[in-house]
Amino acid sequence: MGKLLIALEKQLKTENKQAAEDCLLIYNALQESNGGHVWESQWNQLVVTTWDGCYPNSKRISTPSSIGRMYLVGIKEAKKL
Fold it and tell me: What is the pTM for the complete model shown?
């Protein structure tokens, strides 16, 4: 999912920075739990991807879904321990 990381890094430079940071936390947690892989079937349950604008100038915007926000709470709680 190299293109996904590139898109999230680009999103970090926009007004949707917080959503990108949350998505990167989800990405890293999935990668750790799956032995270095992030499966699309898991990612799509935790993150909603929308497109802003029209092709060819469209921008990908990723935000945590409702399940993804609950997953983030679990990640942050686990880091406290």
Answer: 0.91
